Structures
1.
Amino acid sequence: MYVFAAQGARLRKLAAEGLDIIRMDIGEPDAPPPAFIIDELDQQSRNPKKHGYAGYGGTPELKQAIADYYQRRFGVALDPVSETLPLLGSKEGLANIALAWLDPGDLAIVPDPGYPTYQMGAKMAGADVYFTPLEARLGWLPDLEAIPAEVAGRARLMWVSYPNNPTGAVAPLSFYRDAVEFCRRHEILLCSDLPYADVTFDGYEAPSVLSVPGAKEVTLEFNSLSKSHHLAGWRVGMAVGNATAVKALLQIKSNVDSGIFRPIQDAATVALNSDPSWMVARNEEYRRRRDLVLEAVRSIGMVAETPQAGLYIWALPPAGYGSLEFADKVLLETGVGFTAGDAYGPSGVGYVRISLGTETAKIEEAMARLTALAL
Ligand SMILES: Cc1ncc(COP(=O)(O)O)c(C=O)c1O
């Protein structure tokens, strides 16, 4: 079972047994999307002509909106026809690109810790996985020089994702330059996963790897409206960049799914074309939550860096506690759900991930319970 499905089932069981649970383990916005996006879905869904199969490749309007968003937001020029592909949320794209690109016996380079679908996609394709450890001392960036020549030679795909889930780290453009150069040298498809690009704090702006000159030759980037526009349950994302990879992904997808509900594509088009200034207040609220959580966890001896982006605090438990042990203690004694870092790969062991996608009042209550915990 998918690791987070198992965790959710456990928390629901404890809630049914009477534990007052505050979930800080889920990586999704607590707030609904802005009303203008819902209004568009409402209006379009009343059109009797919009309920049939929508076609496989996405509407021309959504593809154009994706290209325009990339131009405006990242200064990246994309051909909407051949270099953009709407997805049913980015997760299916992460898994399907592995099926599209990897043969049994191929190799994928996957960050550890990392979002579980990177490695599961490779495994579903029958490929092997090589983990690049992300460590605090290297700013949670993979050490590309440390990848053995034999691995680089066999690899056909490499994942990077910044702002990072779960570590909260961000990547400088210089890292993206190195990653593009590495992938070009070894003929690897660089897959960048960028769902937290628009959840940023303190003036930080997350770049796209596609802004590196020449990146498109080797790069496919995944993005999503789940976190940026609070559309997690609507399932709408995108793959953009290398046209050969876009085509390969569409070939798999057209055999697996039948496109995104048209009114959702229309609403996503409006969302991407709209003035994003509403995100300023949203991000400010996340920043307040971030600071509130950091103050509380540090006061009980946990160690955490201050993330500039994303929805997560990645923290070491107080001295003497393992990650599973501490997450369990917090859950059973306070009802507050964290995720033990073990879920994100071997290098996640020892950490817990705390999500900021919970109402501020509930986070305040959760932190009050945490700081009262007997350690
Ligand atoms: C790093 C990362 N990639 C991809 C996803 C999938 O997002 P979606 O499928 O909703 O677009 C998530 C969701 O939590 C994520 O954290």
2.
Amino acid sequence: MNPEPPIRHFYGWATPNSQRVSIMLEELQLAYTAHGINIRARAQFAPEILALNPYGKIPILVETHAGVPPLVIFESGAILMHLAEHNSRFLPADGALRTTTLSWLMVVLTSLGPFSGQAHHWTELAAEQPAVAQTHSVALVTRVYRLLDARLAEMPYLAGDAYSVADIAAYPWIARHGWAWQALGDYKALAAWFIRVSARPAVQAGMRVPAGAKLD
Ligand SMILES: N[C@@H](CCC(=O)N[C@@H](CS)C(=O)NCC(=O)O)C(=O)O
């Protein structure tokens, strides 16, 4: 293992999946350079971005150590796990708490994010907005919100007593609850968690990266 910290380049925009990574970088107080990739201007399809992630999506993290090829990581969940494991923070290395943390991380990665993104498409972005698509996509999100709310009624954070990668992955999507026609007032424990996590300076800093980015 290289003892020197890598040079880090983060490619992202003012989007929930990107902000998972910028929050994590800020929580870990790591040095990085942020590159704005405006997805509304289709910058994710520029050849230099496709060379990093052939899927043409952000976020992307590139870590470079002198003398070895850069490590390119895409998919927000993979980036969160990489950073957590290499810094021994926000994801236990083993044991039951690691497994529980991963279970909640997977719920957030595979349901909260994708379902909220689809709901946003049908509630706002699509040229046509059929009621059946809106009802279906919002219902999927409602089911996850109810799950998270019930969980957070029992414990302060998704994995238990400690803030973890599961909370970091969930936060930027919950911040866009309006996209999926959700009102936090309907979810008392989730709303209290949202206030708790919003108070973290690293979360506030991560939500502002890249500087000046707007999802218009
Ligand atoms: N599963 C991926 C999803 C990444 C993703 O969909 N990113 C969005 C921004 S939040 C994006 O790049 N959209 C542009 C596109 O799909 O062309 C992850 O978690 O990183």
